[in-house]
Amino acid sequence: MLNNHYALRYITLILWLLIGVTSIGMAAESWRAGVARTKITPNGPYWMGGYASRTRPSEGTLQDLYAKAIAIDDTDGSRVVIVTSDLLVINRELGEAVKQRVFEKYKLPASRLLLNCSHTHCGPELRLYRESLHNIPPEFARRMHEYVKRLENQLVDLVGKAIATQVPARLDFSQQKASFAVNRRNNRAADVSRLRKEGKLIGPVDHSVPVLKVADRKGRMLAILFGYACHNTVMSFYQTSGDYAGFAQQYIEEKHPETIAMFVMGAGGDQNPLPRREVKYLHEHGRALADAVEAALAGKQRSVTGSLRTALAKAPLEFQPHADRETLEKQAKSTNKYERWKANYLLGELNAGRTVSRKYGLPVQAIRFGDDLLLVAIGGECVVDYSLRTKTQYSSADGPAIWVAGYSNDVFGYLPTLRVLKEGGYEGGGHMVYTKFPGPFTKTVEKRVFETIERLVEEVK
Length: 461
Ligand SMILES: [Zn+2]
Hints:
By secondary structure, the protein is an alpha+beta fold. The protein has helices spanning 2-28, 92-106, 130-133, 138-164, 192-197, 243-255, 279-298, 325-331, 337-351, 384-394, 418-423, 425-428, 445-459, and strands at 31-39, 66-73, 79-85, 113-115, 167-177, 181-183, 208-216, 221-228, 260-265, 271-273, 302-304, 308-318, 359-369, 373-378, 381-382, 401-405, 414-415. The strands form four sheets. Strands 1, 2, 3, 4, 5, 7, 8, 9 and 11 form a nine-stranded mixed sheet that branches.
């Protein structure tokens, strides 16, 4: 009787251990993942986006541009697709058109598709309304329209290809740091090298480099997703390139030829890669970021397990009203061509009896990978405070790692926090002159964004 009792206990223990080991093994490889890439370099000379001061079309290619996608399913078949791209913006028109067609074609709802762009300023202009703002010659305006249509098709196809190539996979998360991002509102570019040496750079920054490694059953890396919160603006020349993020991706892919490296732009609205404006800095910063990714891959990894949950909503933002007619009529005669353009646009709306909407729905998305990773993706050129505050609010010792992406789903312009709005300057409201929006955001902007983030984080818990 006693022997039987012990035998039973041993058998139970062995069974329990077996189940335990199997479930750990399954948990680590409980995902399915597929990746795809497509070249999106425009054919021939094109009008470049990113600097209003551009006066002529592109002149050759230093580096090709790519869009890349990863489709990840959990064991229940819940799916998310993340698309990254060497593009200045994914604006509302493009983002919504792609999401609509992806839903029709692959039954993937908008909340399960994240469209992020690297914000390279050495790629094509995609915002059709900028034709009049930048006086884009008709030939290049026509090419811009054609490019945007083709790009939309390419992005839709890309999502399908990623879904079609899924294999069993495991996910691991780790983080490192890179320090070339500088708060551009608080430090003069010319002083940066000296200030850095003296340890006197000021202003908020987020130097973290989150890395998600996606590998197949044999341990072969399918994709490396990595992020950084910094404007992708080393160069302002007329050659095509993915800028520092393009070179970081290139360096990682050279080291791991079977892998797709995917750059996810963070909340870098007020951050610049400094020093800059020389090709050597493209390589230097690209290398620094790639090295941080390698260090993260070599370091301690957090195995990502569990189920996938996603949520998407629009934060109801408001703009301040535009100037009255009398002021607009004065501005229409300004020596500043951008002020003239904006005033004429607004006067045109008034004359046509239309009111310029003061509301804007900013897409915010939350993607939760089990208990281990929470990705919050915010639209617009969000300033770094959004990243820092989200991490402060949600980081905990036993909670998921927090990854904040900016420049996601709808890059309409800058998204200031209350602090930046009050301080003013370019990101606070100055940039509005390049948009069709009436005035800067109202003081509710940060509060509205965080109310939405809080709701979504709760939803994906
Ligand atoms: Zn920008």
